Amino acid sequence: MELRKINKEDAKAQWEYTTALPEDENGLTNPYNGVSYEEYIDQVLQTLISYEHPVNMPDWFVPETYYYLWDEGHLVGEFRIRHHLTEALRNGAGHIGYSIKRDERGKGYGTAGLKLTLLEAKKIVPEDEIYLRVNKDNIASQKVMLKNGGKIVGEDEGHFFVRIQKNT
């Protein structure tokens, strides 16, 4: 199993994954649901790659790197790392967002993928903890975070706020 940064070589598989993701599922938003392959290649791919080192973005924008989880040549999940937090992210979505392909859920990919993503996040994120948020009704994702050392530190009406220490 491996985590690969978004790239042009894997464009076809990344496009298939990205365009099949719902526009909003369990709090992970995806404005590229259903875009054509041509549009993905011409616009979306470069946009997503550029988020790692953004230029001419609004002040509120936080650099973000996209990674894809691969197992035996098949793309099974997407993981996003926000490089640092704004106040809105600190009290909201946090550093990491992820999804696992629907037909690959329940096979341990979330746990393994988050473990690999945390290794990358610990190199990037300046905060002492990795911040995550999970919907209260998303039991599977809660288990993934807890298996990776997460601690629930708060909640609001629909979410739990989870923290993972960088030194673990």
What can be said about the biggest beta sheet?
4 strands, antiparallel
Tell me the series of helices and strands, N- to C-terminal. EHEEHEEHEHEHEE
Radius of gyration: 15 Å
> Would you state the CATH class?
Alpha Beta
- Quaternary form: single chain
Predict the CATH topology.
Aminopeptidase
Mean pLDDT: 93
- What is the tally of helical segments? 5
Query: How many beta strands in the DSSP annotation?
Result: 9
Query: Which class of secondary structure composition applies to the elements?
Result: alpha+beta
Total count of domains: 1
Low-confidence stretches: none
Strand content: 25-35%
Helix and strand arrangement:
Blueprint: E1 2-5, H1 11-20, E2 24-25, E3 28-29, H2 37-50, E4 64-71, E5 74-82, H3 87-90, E6 96-100, H4 109-124, E7 129-135, H5 139-147, E8 151-155, E9 159-165
Antiparallel strand pairs: 1-4, 2-3, 4-5, 5-6, 7-9, 8-9
Helix pairs in contact: 1-2
Short structural summary:
By secondary structure, the chain is an alpha+beta fold.
List keywords for this structure.
single chain; 168 residues; alpha+beta; Aminopeptidase; 4-stranded antiparallel beta sheet; 3-stranded antiparallel beta sheet; 5 helices; 9 strands; globular
Describe the structure.
The chain has helices spanning 11-20, 37-50, 87-90, 109-124, 139-147, and strands at 2-5, 24-25, 28-29, 64-71, 74-82, 96-100, 129-135, 151-155, 159-165. Strand 4 and strand 5 (74-82) form a beta hairpin. The strands form three sheets. Strands 1-4-5-6 form a four-stranded antiparallel sheet, sandwiched between helices. A three-stranded antiparallel sheet has the order 7-9-8, covered by helices on one side. The protein is built from five helices and nine strands. With 168 residues, it is an alpha+beta fold. The chain has a single domain (2-126), classed as Gcn5-related N-acetyltransferase (GNAT) (Aminopeptidase, 3-Layer(aba) Sandwich). Helices cover 32% and strands 29% of the residues. The model has no long low-confidence stretch (mean pLDDT 93).
